[in-house]
Amino acid sequence: METYTAMRHFADSWGLLAMTLFFIGVVLFTLRPGSRESANDAASIPLKDD
């Protein structure tokens, strides 16, 4: 039972920090300059054969 408590404490502290940093990184990656062009290119991939 002690292992569950340790894992719960880890998830509550460092796990939350890791998920928050990951979320901020994804948002910054999405909003970086020049991302609009690459997103539009990726969105048009299914239509390139038509």
TrEMBL record:
The chain crosses the membrane at residues 14-31. CDD domains: cbb3_Oxidase_CcoQ. Pfam families: FixQ (PF05545). This is Cytochrome c oxidase cbb3-type subunit 4. Keywords: Membrane, Transmembrane, Transmembrane helix. It comes from Rhizobium mongolense subsp. loessense. InterPro entries: Cbb3-typ_cyt_oxidase_comp (IPR008621). The lineage of its organism: Bacteria, Pseudomonadati, Pseudomonadota, Alphaproteobacteria, Hyphomicrobiales.
